[in-house]
Design brief:
With 203 residues, the protein is an alpha/beta fold. It folds into two domains: 75 residues, Rossmann fold; 113 residues, Vaccinia Virus protein VP39 (Rossmann fold). It has four helices and nine strands. The strands form two sheets. It has a seven-stranded mixed β-sheet, sandwiched between helices. It has a two-stranded antiparallel sheet with strand order 8-9.
Length: 203
């Protein structure tokens, strides 16, 4: 399994992913800031790129790592925890968040491996392929609709550690639609929680 972690610092997502994969996959982290979590020197499955992911140069570095590591450049899961500095200006903060979401989504759509269900006989179980942090704004509804047109399942998840007043949360998307997507997907409220099965996430 190959995971790309955008906005990886301080390193919590990388640690969690490494524990799940047990060294049997590839994890590529990217952030403007350095990791606070040390990566074992013998952990060849984890790579970190320090830089601005919105720039072509940094994205090209990530693409090269993926080609070298997997031989195909495909990704099974893209996680984006990217967030701009919160200013208190709701319009500006929402706009920056949306731009970062779109950057992560564009990368995901270009590199996600074809979706396969957890059980070939199941019509409902889909692997989680895209998780993105979002700062809710007037554009949130349109973003949800766009994600729903691209993935079979879209859920809004607000972490337990997040303050009730906080407008931050995550869109968790499962089952990339093949071909030309149609705007229809199941979704749930803020308290939805993904489940784990055999180290992978499914809805």
């Amino acid at each position: 399994m190959t995971i790309v972690d955008l906005g990886a610092a301080p390193g919590g997502w990388i640690q969690a992913a490494d524990q799940v994969l047990g060294g049997r996959g590839t994890i590529v982290g990217v952030d403007l800031l350095p990791l606070h979590t040390s990566i074992p020197q013998n952990e060849a499955s984890i790579r970190f790129v320090q830089g601005d992911f919105t720039t072509p140069a940094v994205q090209n570095k990530v693409k090269q790592i993926l080609r070298d590591s997997t031989g195909r450049g495909e990704v099974d899961l893209v996680v984006s925890d990217m967030m701009g500095n919160v200013t208190g200006n709701m319009l500006r903060d929402g706009t920056i968040s949306l731009e970062l979401c779109e950057t992560a989504l564009s990368f995901a759509l270009a590199h996600l491996a074809p979706s396969t269900t957890a059980d070939p006989t199941s019509k409902t179980a889909h692997p989680v392929q895209f998780v993105v942090k979002h700062f809710t704004s007037a554009a949130t509804s349109d973003l949800r609709k766009r994600l729903a047109s691209l993935f079979h399942v879209v859920k809004w998840v607000k972490p337990h550690s997040s303050r009730k007043a906080s407008r931050e949360g995550f869109f968790v998307c499962a089952g990339l639609r093949p071909g030309n997507p149609k705007p229809a997907a199941s979704s749930s409220g803020p308290d939805a929680r993904p489940s784990t099965e055999s180290g992978d996430l499914f809805f």
